[in-house]
Amino acid sequence: MSVDDTAELVIETGAEGRAAVLRGPFTIHTVTAAEQRFRDLDPAQALEIDLRPVTGFDTAGAWAIAALTRRAKAAGGSCAIIGATPSMEALLDTVTKALPEGEAQAPPPVTLTDRIERLGRAVAAAGGALAGLSGFLGLFLARLVRAVVHPREFRLTSLVHQCEEVGVKAVPIVALMAFLIGIVLAFQGSAQLRQFGAEVFVVDLIAISILRELGILLTAIIVAGRTASAFTAAIGSMKMREEIDAMRTLGLDPALVLFVPRILALILMLPILGLIANAAGLLGGALMCWIELGISPAMFRTRLIEGANTSHLMVGLVKAPVFALIIGVVGCRAGMLVQSNAESLGRQTSNSVVMAIFAVILADALFSIFFAEMGI
Description:
Transcription Regulator spoIIAA; 2 domains; 71% helix
């Protein structure tokens, strides 16, 4: 046996360092030497700590033993405590629970199987979301047909109110956005076409870009950010307060009362907002052409009539009802997915805006491919 005597503390270890007997007070005044001897022990071996000869014990001693026990477990060994009194055991248990957790282990390397699994889960989640949107679209169409068949059940006052909320109140931001886009197109187009002496064709650039694509697309994006979030927040708040359950209890159909007026208002108002955006964009482009290129408003109007026909306007307006339907369905469905907590409301509101904008841009791309293949 080897014996160390430091500050009235004696540690005895066997020939192979598998057992330790603590003698005397094992407190903050004597724990330093003991901790050094503990570190010299091999934690992979079976260790045994005998506390029967200990005359004093505090949290410092309990910490040293708890740390040794943790090192032994981490190394695959074991550390048994014998001879501890009930008060020692209680103190050891408290200190062990209070020890900070070790550093988190590095995550295992991502394999090809893991990547395929993540891709599969993402595809399945996307498919589930698409199926949910399709079901919600079917619900809206069914309730719309019911409102046509039974006009007394349709809430005209709610439709007028929603038309004001999603349409009239959105006119200033939509008009300002389109006006600035027209200015930017005219300025950038003139800077490029001036190099070839083709400044007059900037009118064609503005007309086709705004009437065919940018006018209705940017309007739909603004409406998606403004209205989809409003739909989700309003319906989600009602669901959190259990107002939708109360409506069902009173015999009211939430789809007919809440969804149909909102989505129908969007379908009616988005084409009008698109026309306002087209007019504001052309006005901004005409103003910049007059300032930058000296093209008078009369010349701009003449060139606009000659270079752009009504087909470009119709291509843009045909997209409006589809965009409105997408935005309305996404916003209302996200509201119905809200749970009974504020965190869920914020998450679904954010998701509805992102999904609505993404779906609108995707639909616009599909429309562009379709019209290109049809030669329109």
